[in-house]
Amino acid sequence: MLTTAQIKHLKSLKLKKYRQNYDEFIIEGDKLITEALLGNEDMTLLIATDEWIVNNKATLPAHVAVEIAKQKELDTISSLSTAPPVMALVKQRSYTIADIEVSDNWILALDGISDPGNLGTIIRSADWFGINTIICSNNCVELYNPKVVQSTMGSIFHVKTIYTDLHAFIAANKHICVAATLDGQQVYGFQFDNEGILVIGSESHGISASILSLIQHRITIPSFGKAESLNAGVATSILLSLLANK
Amino acid sequence: MLTTAQIKHLKSLKLKKYRQNYDEFIIEGDKLITEALLGNEDMTLLIATDEWIVNNKATLPAHVAVEIAKQKELDTISSLSTAPPVMALVKQRSYTIADIEVSDNWILALDGISDPGNLGTIIRSADWFGINTIICSNNCVELYNPKVVQSTMGSIFHVKTIYTDLHAFIAANKHICVAATLDGQQVYGFQFDNEGILVIGSESHGISASILSLIQHRITIPSFGKAESLNAGVATSILLSLLANK
Predict the structure, then answer these.
(1) Burial annotation B162-177 (CB, 10 A radius, 16+ → b, else e)
(2) Closest-approach residue (CA) in chain B for A229
(3) DSSP symbol at B64
(4) B55 in helix, strand or coil?
């Protein structure tokens, strides 16, 4: 049974302030629980309905503390419109640029992505297309925002997402930088190298001027209709698909 | 000034039942208002703060009724977390399959897309890549759901989205059908014709078996990492980008 203090603590993690104080976050639903266990994440508590626990007893790892919760309690802890019957408390991993593996691959750099659904979708697509590392400018939306976590569909545990001063990172890096802009060279026909940094700007302001000054190539997804722009998650994913299938 | 009855009516349109009763929906923010006016949509009422009206007087069309609203009133009418200073009441357009223009272009068919953000994103991407017509199975999320409307970023006024019995539509259509599945031929290298129907399945169940039996080609976006799937809006957009740039 969950104590009142535990419920209060779990509910507090809806707010960034408390997620940062405790270095913890909540994951919801079977898919994320499975991925967290597969990834050997530091899961400190699993809470679920009686029924869920009965049905999943065989696969529950011995090292994770388990508490039964009423659906009503899960409803108050959940950030989703419909609370699933299982959630878990997981310790945040914080990666720094020292954790970037040297390899002949592309790094994705995000400059001010502010929509949590977009960041989650980008992480999921990066995972699909084999990108291991995402560098976020410090003004990107927080990685452990519940909407980011849920929309990664577990890819949050496969991709290293690192927050840093993006300008300083790019300035210190020897890789070729390619940026998605509205005035670049058509991306179809663009010859991607085997490694580099792909830079994506914010939904409303694009790439900041100081970072744009460090870019070698600007690329654009050509338009055929009347839409003014593509969703940032979509545009990033299209570019990653071209990178992966170059 | 808005009357209490008007506010009640506008608030009721958050629910599908009332949107369908009145054939109306609400659009929020400058971008959608601009696109609705450009598209000569049937806008029956524009509501905005005093300040917004003062700043936009020059561009307000004479034929649209305008009411001043307090920000507090807009907050109660809005479906967004932060209500913008301008909204409008717009009549729904209902297209049928008789409205499909005969042209050598692709039609996008959606089988049970249920997430409003995904449908909105797909409409926006279809617009970007020059697709004029989307056929939705009757169990897709409603077009005038506020989250769909807002995430189209105005493309709802550029693309004809038609709800129908998708199986019957495809069965009666002479075009080649290409479906996105997880077990298809690699899409890179797939030769798209100049016209056809691209079929996308639901987020959780894919394409229904009865529709799958009508499909000539199955295509797949190859994976390079550990993600189990791509977001449905992303996968659709990647395929549309390849179609448009074939």
Answers:
(1) bbeebeebbeebeeeb
(2) B128
(3) S
(4) helix
CB A225 to CB B128 under 8 A? yes
Instruction: Say how many CA atoms lie within 13 Å of A204 toward its Cβ.
Output: 4
Strands B133-137 and B106-111: parallel
Does residue B54 have a pLDDT over 80? yes
> For the segment A117-131, what is each residue's pLDDT rounded down to a tens digit?
999 999 999 999 999
| CA gap B216, B196 in Å, rounded | 10
Task: Give the bridge partners for A46, in sequence order.
Answer: A66, A88
Question: Touching check for A133 and chain B: CB below 8 Å?
Answer: no
Tens of pLDDT along B103-156? 778 999 999 999 999 999 999 999 999 999 999 999 999 999 999 999 999 999
Q: How many CB atoms within 10 Å of residue A44?
A: 13
- B151·A231 Cβ contact <8 A: yes
Cβ distance B241 to A238 less than 8 Å, yes or no, reads yes
- Parallel/antiparallel/unpaired status of strands B196-201 and B177-186: parallel
Task: Record the pTM.
Answer: 0.95
ipTM of the complex: 0.94
What is the rounded CA–CA span in Å between residue A129 and residue B152?
Answer: 26
